[in-house]
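Follow-up to my post from last week.
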Amino acid sequence: MNPEGCDASSEPVVISPGSRLIGDRASGLKNEIRTALLAGRDVILDFEEVSFVDSSGLGALVVALRSANQNRRRLTLCTVPEHVLALLHLTRLHRIFEIQPDLDTARLLLDAVR
Amino acid sequence: MIGREVRISIPARNGCIGAVRSFFRVFVDNCPELPFDGREAKRLELALHESLANAVRHAKTRRPAGEIQLEIRVDADRLTLRVRDEGEGFDLNEVPEPEPEALPERGFGLYIIRKTMDLVDAERNEGGFVLSMTRLFEPAAPLSGGRET
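User reply:
Got it. Predicted complex:
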């Protein structure tokens, strides 16, 4: 337990997809997210450093959301660059993901529902 | 550049796609006949990436995987990209449109290409499988399921 009385193990895990969410990185991300979800943690994907996402990356995000739903955990995307947001809109995936403007907001909203 | 073609051959390996993307970015930035802003250029780059990634994936069904050829052509009213691989190819009509609510893992690559380009066609011949993608400078008449602006 941390000094504020919150159980750190219930804090969401923040994961950065890296600068390019494609190919092998997409596979690795699926595993990272799955590990966190199976440990009972919510997951925040911080897109601040992401410069390129392809269909493999989108597929990984969808699989991650599926895992989150199955494990009754939450998956939030935050700090998504404009061109990635445009891609999520183009593929209509913005309809199924929780997307927040920044990490603080993502944490706040997850805290509010815990 | 009007009426001219650029042809590039790369090994059918994922590691080579990034270099082609970089070249394409420079090409679009330095071709004054192309009327695309930064946002549209990024979308075209992604459509090209998807077609090359698809070509690598299909070329891997053969041993050796061979090469992929990219042809970039600039005409007065359009940009055409043709990606040829030595794999078996696929039927465009057999790839369903991904429905987000069904949480599909696949299908987004071709969907992105279709939403970015005005004309998408595929052909299998003795030289291999060719995916042709055309972006018109002036938008075509809106079609259901076609390119989004």
